[in-house]
Amino acid sequence: MVYTDLHYFGCLSYYHVLAQHEHIVFDNTAAFSKMSFKNRMVIATAQGPLHLSIPIVGGRDQKTPMNEVLIAYDSPWKSQHFKAISVNYKRAPYFEYYVDSLKALYDNEYAYLNDFLMATQQWTKQQLKAKWLIDTSIEQPTIHLENKWMDSIKPNNFQTEGEQFQYQQVFDEQTGFIQNTCIIDALFAMGGKQALAMIS
């Protein structure tokens, strides 16, 4: 079992940790922290890594518990994120296979950040055909925890921390391999079966 934070389409080293466990418990009560992947993901582009952030009500300096953090909709972030993904991955081998269900995910409007992040986790698990059980915790779990892996990989060190992976990316020739991007990078490049095998 692993007890961890919800991440926005987390990086590959995050999913490598998840794939080692049969039971994932996501912490709903941890305080929101800036410079984390709780509302940010990294995609690969022809110009290098691109950070996409979900705006939240109250700004990023707050310490609100994650289950109370509201998504801000005063900017069209959903369409911007989906457009950035579409533009940069449209040539990826498996992009067309996943794009419709991904668009449906972005078409929904979630009030709370945690609800959207949980939807991205469920979508990712389905596309990977992963077997792990996903659970959430309102309070500190009383069950034995194998470990608590939280916030060790951040947007300012994601390329140097954690497990290192290598596969064919869309913009390899322009940028070289961009290490430890979000899980959808590998999903679009290899498909769910091979992506899961790589991170496991």
What would you say this structure looks like, in words?
This protein has 200 residues and is an alpha/beta fold. It has one domain. The protein contains seven helices and six strands; from the N terminus they run E-H-E-E-E-H-H-H-E-E-H-H-H. The chain has a four-stranded parallel sheet with strand order 5-2-1-6, with no helix packed on it. The chain has a two-stranded antiparallel sheet with strand order 3-4. Strand 3 and strand 4 form a beta hairpin. Helix 2 runs antiparallel to helix 3, helix 3 (95-107) runs antiparallel to helix 4 (113-128) and helix 6 packs across helix 7.
Task: Summarize the entry for a quick read.
By secondary structure, this protein is of the alpha/beta class. 34% of the residues lie in helices and 14% in strands.
